[in-house]
Design goal:
The chain has 650 residues and is α/β, with parallel strands linked by helices. Helices cover 32% and strands 23% of the residues. It is built from 21 helices and 30 strands. It has an 8-stranded mixed beta sheet, with helices on both faces. A 7-stranded mixed beta sheet has the order 5-4-17-16-18-19-20, with helices on both faces. Strand 24 and strand 25 form a beta hairpin. Helix 3 packs across helix 4 and helix 5 crosses helix 6. The longest helix is centred in the first third of the chain and has 17 residues. Bound molecules: adenosine-5'-monophosphate-propyl ester (PRX).
Length: 650
């Protein structure tokens, strides 16, 4: 975020108070903050009461910095909390998912049907030898079976590791091996941008080397041709013939529920690992509080893919525990037309919409005529997540999508936090366009300087969390030292989030983006180092430096500077650039495709050899290059800029 934008934020003085009508019916009232402040532990204990426990905990929190245990000795089953309890309490006929496939096929799935599917899938997992404590990789399109697979794993106590379907075979196998997964659940493919894309070939490629995967379960979604081997099993062949009964076992509150990989500052992604009782407590509480969910009447739609944490906490666990009726959409927003998502809102009378700033900005770019063609009057609340939302996009969201009637909740959180941490409460908070406003009840978030002193109103610094919270990560899978080093070493006993933040003169929180070498492209975290090592793994590249440059649609875009290897007859110009982009897509996935790759002869380095990304960012953002006096060769930036005059972009 540029200095200008930071200054603009400081002068934002528009506020939007909840209407008296909304406030009166809201799930959470102002008093909640004081209640949580008076007894934070008791507050979270009261939220855990919403879950169905088979054995009660004896201690709410065991905190041995930086390792926490919540609801110690309690026992429960995540899938029972999402499903069985609704059927037991007479809600089996309620719709859990209205599924809308990209080609226009639809499915309506009630809670009773979802439970039946999950029980059969759990029986299938048991038949192929999956046991509590195992890990299962899930690599799926956004179809109901993705949720069924996650819940079936949870039901038998196997931790799932969902890998986003847009990741490459290389990214998949590194995650499979890091978690030592025994099983992969995938599909032949899915639908995107009007065509079938394939998933199974990437799984086959991933499994061509060393691993401990015994079986691959394949959901038939597109019917396309797939290669087949002895370890492959069609989902329908094994699941359909299973008994419809399955008695779930209770697991410890701290039993691993899932691992989800996210980019850090090194090339190797971190396996963020979450457990059961605390995670479910906070995911479900925040879903009721922040989205003001009324399960009998709301139609809730979170547009995130299950491959991301938002899909875990706010498509699967939080909403299902709360008995929500949801929309799930498989495809892209512009297929077959740019109004597709508005058409879905109108069709299902969606009341709560939770999406990302990058999509909001894309809608803005396409123009108001698309939302204006559809009736969006059913909407009563809008949410945003994944990156800072700029005030213009916030105002457009409010006016054009929300008809100036819906409160907007800008929710700050991370894969690591497991659930929302900073957000307005829609019936309480007077919101400002672009601000996540204040920490939720029960959460302690502060903005501090380098010596951990709070900065005070009107100042900026680093965002930290200084008290444990129920859905906090329990570690980095297999790497306890990395967990301590990444999150707990900058400040003693305090969680360092890696985000910059500012408090305005009223004390509202403004998130300013990452302060480390992590980019945020369309709300997805990608590390500069990951892309650099993908580039350097190409035979023609000697060195690479990657920066995130501001981008009007995607928030940040990837810009790479590469030095080619000597002694090689390089493919020239455009062809080489395209080959390098394709190589990054192959190594990581399409989300990491650089917007621009610039071939240079030198990179700006300090005398100690550290690349000065700040200067490269100036170039990538077409700004005057800042102070370069600490460079080993101060002339380098001129050479780079001269060389760029002819560079192209796509
Ligand atoms: O930089 C923050 C940004 O996304 C990062 C977390 O990314 P991830 O783990 O992929 O989770 C995204 C979905 C929760 C944060 O460190 N971020 C997330 N939400 C916001 C945000 N930045 C500003 N405002 C937000 N509302």
């Amino acid at each position: 975020m540029s200095q200008d934008q930071v200054e603009n934020l400081l002068s934002e003085d528009r506020t939007f108070s909840p209407t008296a009508e909304f406030a009166a019916q809201a799930n959470i009232k102002e008093a909640e903050y004081a209640l949580a402040d008076a007894d934070r532990i008791g507050f979270w204990e009261s939220k855990a009461e919403y879950l169905k426990w088979d054995k009660r905990w004896h201690t709410v929190l065991d905190w041995q910095v930086p390792f926490s245990k919540w609801f110690v000795d309690g026992k429960l089953n995540a899938s029972v909390n999402c499903l069985d309890r609704h059927i037991d309490e007479g809600r089996g006929d309620r719709v859990a998912f209205y599924f809308e496939g990209e080609p226009g096929d639809t499915r309506t799935i009630t809670y009773a049907e979802l439970l039946k599917d999950v029980k059969k899938a759990a029986n299938a997992l048991t038949e192929i030898g999956i046991k509590a404590g195992d890990r299962v990789a899930i690599y799926m399109p956004m179809i109901p079976e993705a949720a069924v697979a996650m819940l079936a794993c949870a039901r038998v106590g196997a931790a799932h590791s969902v890998v986003f379907g847009g990741f490459s075979a290389e990214a998949l196998i590194s995650r499979i091996n890091d978690a030592d997964a025994r099983l992969v659940i995938t599909a032949d493919g899915g639908y995107r941008k009007g065509a079938a894309f394939a998933l199974k070939p990437a799984v086959d490629e991933a499994l061509s080397g060393e691993h401990n995967v015994k079986n691959v379960l394949v959901v038939k979604r597109t019917g396309q041709e797939v290669a087949w081997s002895d370890r492959d099993i069609w989902w329908h062949e094994i699941v359909d013939r299973q008994p419809e009964e399955h008695i779930a076992e209770s697991f410890d509150s701290e039993h691993p529920l899932f691992i989800l990989y996210t980019s850090g500052t090194t090339a190797k992604p971190k396996g963020i690992f979450h457990t059961t009782g605390g995670y479910l407590t906070q995911a479900s509480y925040t879903h009721r509080a922040v989205f003001d969910l009324k399960p009998e009447s709301d139609i809730y739609w979170c547009t995130a893919d299950v491959g991301w944490i938002t899909g875990h906490s706010y498509v699967v666990y939080g909403p299902l525990i709360n008995g929500a009726t949801q929309v799930m959409y498989e495809g892209t927003p512009d297929t077959p037309h740019k109004g597709r998502m508005f058409e879905i809102i109108e069709k299902y009378k969606v009341t709560i919409l939770y999406t990302a700033p990058t999509l909001i900005r894309t809608w803005m770019k396409w123009g108001d005529e698309f939302p204006n063609k559809f009736n969006l009057k059913s909407l009563r609340l809008l949410g945003s997540v994944g990156e800072p939302i700029n005030p213009e996009a916030w105002m457009w969201y409010r006016e054009v999508i929300g008809g100036n009637r819906c409160p907007i909740v800008d929710t700050w959180w991370q894969t690591e936090t497991g659930a929302i941490m900073i957000s307005p409460l829609p019936g309480v908070t007077a919101t400002k366009p672009g601000s996540a406003m204040r920490p939720l009840p029960g959460i302690s978030a502060k903005v501090v300087d380098d010596s951990a002193h709070e900065v005070g109103k009107g100042h900026g610094g680093y965002l930290i969390l200084d008290k444990p919270w129920p859905s906090m990560l329990r570690g980095v899978w297999g790497e306890p030292e990395r967990y301590k080093e990444t999150y707990w070493s900058k400040y003693e006993g305090i969680y360092f989030a890696g985000d910059g933040a500012k408090l305005d003169s009223d004390g509202a929180y403004w998130l300013l983006g990452r302060v480390d070498d992590v980019m945020n492209v369309s709300g997805h975290r990608i590390s500069t180092t990951e892309v650099e090592s993908a580039l350097v793994s190409h035979e023609e590249v000697a060195e690479a430096a990657v920066v995130g440059a501001n981008d009007a649609t995607t928030g940040q875009a990837i810009v790479a500077f590469v030095i080619l290897r000597g002694g090689i007859d390089h493919t020239k110009g455009e062809a080489l650039i395209s080959a390098l982009k394709a190589h990054v897509v192959k190594e990581i996935g399409a989300i990491a495709r650089p917007r621009q790759i610039l071939v240079v002869n030198e990179l700006p380095k300090t005398r100690s050899g550290k690349i000065m990304r700040r200067l490269l960012r100036d170039v990538a953002e077409n700004r005057a290059v800042g102070d370069s006096t600490t460079l080993a060769d101060p002339n380098v930036m001129n050479l780079i800029k001269d060389g760029l005059a002819t560079a192209t972009e796509d």
